[in-house]
Amino acid sequence: MTRQLIPNLEQEKVIELMCEVLELSDRSEQNVIEVIEKVGIEALFNSVDVLEIEEDEKDRIKALKEVIETKAKSIALMEGGL
Q: The organism sits in which domain of life (predicted)?
């Protein structure tokens, strides 16, 4: 049980930090957190356009997704993947 709580707490901190970095409004932050809790972060990134948040906030989420994907590709290349 304790082992499961630690990752959940860390995930909550990461989500909170992500929302802070993205400068989401309180309403948008709550919306994003609810979506992540229901369907996960990957689904959030894949369905940004249907979120009920401001367009500039959607753009910032898309930019974060692009940064994450670029970094993942870079790591994969360094590890001999792809």
A: Bacteria
Q: Two tokens at 69? A: 């994907």
CB 58 within 8 A of CB 49: yes
Rounded Cα–Cα distance for residues 39 and 80 (Å): 31
pLDDT, tens digit, for every residue of 7-41? 777 888 989 999 999 999 999 999 999 999 899 98
Closest by CA to 40, choosing from 15, 23, 60, is 15
Largest interatomic CA distance in the chain: 42
Distance (Å, whole) CA 57 – CA 20: 12
The structure's pTM equals 0.80
Phi-psi region of 53 (alpha: psi -120 to 50; beta: other; left: phi over 0): beta
Here the tokens at position 12 are: 């909550």
